[in-house]
Amino acid sequence: MKRPTTLLHRVLLNEGLQVSTAVERDWLTITSRFEAEGMSFLTITLPSLCDTLDQGLAQGRIEPSMFMGFKPWRRRGKLPALLSGFFMRIFDLEGVLLVKPCIDSIRAIRQITRLYKKVELPCSPARIKRAFERYISNDIGISEADQRPRDYRTFDIVAACLWSRLELPCDLISESPGKYGPGATAEHLKPNARFSSLTWYERCEPYFPSDSFLVSRPDRTDILANVTYLDEDNELPVRVVQVPKTLKTPRTISVEPAHMMLIQQSVCDFLYTVLESGFLGFNSIRFTDQTVNRELARVGSLDGQLSTIDLSDASDLVSNQLVGRMLKTAPSLRDYVMAARSRRARLPDGNILVLNKYASMGSALCFPIESMLFLTIVVCALVEHSGKRPSARLVRDLCKKIAIYGDDIVVPSETAPGVVAMLEDFGLRVNRNKSFFTGLFRESCGGDYYQGHDVTPVYVRHLNNPGQRLTGTQLVSSISLSNQFYMKGLWHVAQSIRDHLALCGYKRVPRSTESLGVLSYRSVFLNTNLRWDEERCAYRVRGYKPHVARDPDPIKDESGFIRFSLGPTAASDYRRDLRRALRDIADVRGLRDCQVVPDRQILLSSHEDRLCRYAWTGNKADLKGAVSDLGVSRDPLSSVKSHSLSTKNGWSPVHCAGITFS
Fold first, then answer.
1. Residue 652: in which H helix or E strand, if any?
2. At what angle do helices 258-277 and 366-386 cross, to 10 degrees?
3. What averages of pLDDT result for each successive group of 10 residues across the chain (662 residues)?
4. What distances in angstroms separate CA 644 from CA 110, 183, 348, 508, 548, one per listed residue?
5. Are 76 and 280 spatial neighbours (Cβ–Cβ below 8 Å)?
6. Of 580, 558, 561, 551, residue with least CA distance to 638
7. What burial class does residue 279 get, using C-beta atoms within 10 Å of its C-beta: 0-12 exposed, 13-18 middle, 19+ buried?
8. What is the rounded distance in angstroms from the CA atom of residue 432 to the CA atom of residue 423?
9. 541-570: b or e for each residue (b if 16 or more CB lie within 10 Å)?
10. Radius of gyration of the chain from Cα atoms?
11. Beta carbons within 10 angstroms of residue 120's beta carbon
12. Which of 114, 296, 633, 649 has its CB 3.0 to 4.6 Å from that of 457, i.e. a possible disulfide?
């Protein structure tokens, strides 16, 4: 689109058509304010009108003080003038919620106002500076919250009931082969170069031995002579950076050193597997499945019995001291968790900050540890609300009423005020604009619901540059955006995006009822650009297929090659055997007496017969042949280049089943 408002105009017309309301005045207001305020109107100011709607649905009425920055409809009116045709189908002229508000109008307002809320654009220097200052002030606030007098008796009992059993299998953490995550590292190492990293911390050695994590085979302990062991004073700090979130504020994260990434992933694998296995007697925490929280939010929007709570700056306010207290009855696990934590952070100005938080976003342990702490605090609130003495049985019963996915929390509505008070008492910050206890609107894990209806909007993530050919990322994003609008029923908007792409030269995008293996437009009945391949006795399709650019990144030594080749297999075997151990062992004695997870060195040695055929030469052809023979899909000579998606037009085999061809 030539201008951002062009797509917004299409959305406005399509939504007005669906609810039969005039939108000409709304369009004039939007264009005039966009000319005066720029993109900040579409990304910051306009979405605030949606917050007004959400709060009005929760409170049952809307007041002029709730939509500051927008003119009221008529003098002393209770409704905003912008999109008043939609608001009048939801609230009466006094601002009171109608008995049967128009669901389509609710969905329309949310779609129009939030269209550009999450577009990835660079923030202004002032907003970036404020985000870094907020990161520092949050860490200072943790220290102040830790010193606040507080009664920990209920917290200690609940934490013991929840986590003391983790002490039993935690020795299996040291048997995890670990893995390197996909993100950047503090040392700016490329993905393949990390496998040759030989840096280790002295304080981690008792819990994560370097001869297990850095040595690939029992006969290659000579590698340890090249390992650099750092004491606590010389440990590498995490690198504090920012990534796009919204134009209002960026997301501040930390970039961990490569060896800490390896250690943290080993603990993360253990926690993910144990907490999602049901070994502890509850399944309140989830790390990979957001659909449970979304479904509970939908159910809560039907009768109001469930409330959704969202936290602000959740990871930056998790106290390291409080995490240690939470795991007091699992001392071995606490030692592992604390050893895997980075203690210092390097700010963009070069200053070093000693962290009071457990971990910033970017650490592999940030998500599981914060989830465990939030569950502990929420259960404390529910115990106090019950008026009963805390016990293991009561804690298990209360956990069944809670669902936690990171900082998205679902609790019974009758306990929500107490939960919020308890969270804030422990120094956390509840986002009141995104937490809903009353009314019939609920929001959790990206799903927005009112009276059981999905009112989640479609978001634009990338803007196209007028007059320039689309990049691969922009093409993929545009086709995905068109398909999302199509599935939401905004067919005029979807077609306008497709027409725009055709004008840009992308005319061979097929339509299909299913995913084809190439970029395609969704359709309810059409399958186009297909041709029968007689040699393969199958259909093939012509279209654009995404490709990623790669950077030269060869494996540098034999040890790195072995860890590169066998790491995924070892990690998969570890998780499988750990799940089997947690399922088969029922009592404490059995868990301590049985060696249920194979030793890492044995696991790697089991592949030695195949590896011995390849004498290390560093030759590229030898590396390619070895990796191919071992069945490893990754490339030992290069790594994916960030933000470098491209597309190629051509014929590809159809990669789907269930298509009806006519």
1. strand 638-653
2. 40
3. 85 95 95 94 94 94 90 88 96 95 97 94 89 94 90 94 90 82 88 87 93 73 85 94 86 93 92 89 91 95 96 93 96 95 93 94 94 97 94 94 95 96 95 93 95 96 79 89 95 94 88 85 85 81 84 77 70 78 57 44 48 55 64 72 73 63 42
4. 32, 15, 26, 22, 6
5. no
6. 551
7. buried
8. 12
9. bbbbbeeeeeeebbbeebbbbbbbbbbebb
10. 27
11. 15
12. 114
DSSP state of 525: S
Residue-wise pLDDT tens digits, 194-208? 888 889 999 999 999
Q: Which helix (H) or strand (E) holds 252?
A: strand 251-255
Helix (H) or strand (E) holding 212: helix 210-213
What residues contact residue 124 under an 8 Å CB cut-off, 6+ apart? none
DSSP string, 69-112: TS-BSSTT-SSBSTTHHHHTTTB-TTSBBPSS--HHHHHHHHHH
Q: Are 629 and 611 spatial neighbours (Cβ–Cβ below 8 Å)?
A: no
In the chain, ranges of CATH 3.90.1850.10 domains: 125-187+236-453
Burial class (CB in 10 A: 0-12, 13-18, 19+), 495: middle
Q: At residue 252, what are phi and psi to the nearest 5 degrees?
A: -95, 125
Measured between alpha carbons, how far is 335 from 166 in angstroms, rounded to an integer? 12
- What single-letter amino acid sits at 628? S
Q: How far apart are CA 186 and CA 117, in angstroms?
A: 30
Residue whose entry in the numeric block shows the structure tokens 């490569």: 258
Rounded to whole angstroms, how far apart are CA atoms 190 and 634?
Answer: 14
Beta bridge partners of 311: 430
For 125-187+236-453, CATH number? 3.90.1850.10
What tokens appear for 156 in the block?
């200690």
Q: Which phi and psi (to 5°) does residue 171 adopt?
A: -65, -20
Distance CA 270, CA 275 (A): 8
624: its two tokens: 């390619």
Q: Cα separation of 254 and 240, whole Å?
A: 4
| Pairwise CA distance, residues 151 & 324, whole Å | 16
pLDDT for the residue 154: 95
What is the pLDDT at residue 138?
Answer: 94
Single out the residue of 35, 37, 13, 26 nearest to residue 79, CA to CA: 26
Q: Contact 477/7 with Cβ under 8 angstroms?
A: no
- Looking only at the bridges linking them, the beta strands covering 238-243 and 344-346 are parallel
Distance CA 115, CA 461 (A): 9
Determine the pLDDT at residue 458. 96
76 HSE (CA, 13 A, CB side): 0
- In order, the DSSP letters of 21-33 are ---HHHHHHHHHH
Q: 412 burial class (0-12, 13-18, 19+ CB within 10 angstroms)? A: middle
Calculate ∠ Cα 572-576-578, nearest 5°. 115
d(CA 402, CA 506) in angstroms, rounded, equals: 48
The predicted pLDDT at position 377 comes to 97
Spatial separation of the C-alpha atoms in residues 445 and 288, rounded to whole Å? 11
**Burial category of 247 from C-beta neighbours within 10 Å (exposed 0-12, middle 13-18, buried 19 and up):** buried
